[in-house]
Amino acid sequence: HQLGEHHEKTKESSEYLKYLTQQAVALQRTMNEIYKNGSNANIMPLKFTAPSMASVLEQLNIINGILFIPLSQKDLENLKAEVQRRQQLQES
């Protein structure tokens, strides 16, 4: 496990996988019932939601080591000033 067993994202993924597995087992039981008794059994609709695109991107960023740090406007201005200061030092 790259993130570790106790990481929040690992726990979320494990819970989601457990839920999907339960849905697959329920579907398989229904299919077995249909094969056994003919088409009289009702197939219950599967109940699951796909993860949001934001959640998928966040997970990919974590796995790939991409970290987004929220910066305030003041932080951005300070960063810009620091970059300009370093450029001026290199030019001199």
UniProtKB/TrEMBL annotation:
<dbReference type="GO" id="GO:0003729">
    <property type="term" value="F:mRNA binding"/>
</dbReference>
<dbReference type="GO" id="GO:0048312">
    <property type="term" value="P:intracellular distribution of mitochondria"/>
</dbReference>
<dbReference type="InterPro" id="IPR027523">
    <property type="entry name" value="CLU_prot"/>
</dbReference>
<dbReference type="GO" id="GO:0005737">
    <property type="term" value="C:cytoplasm"/>
</dbReference>
<protein>
    <submittedName>
        <fullName>CLU protein</fullName>
    </submittedName>
</protein>
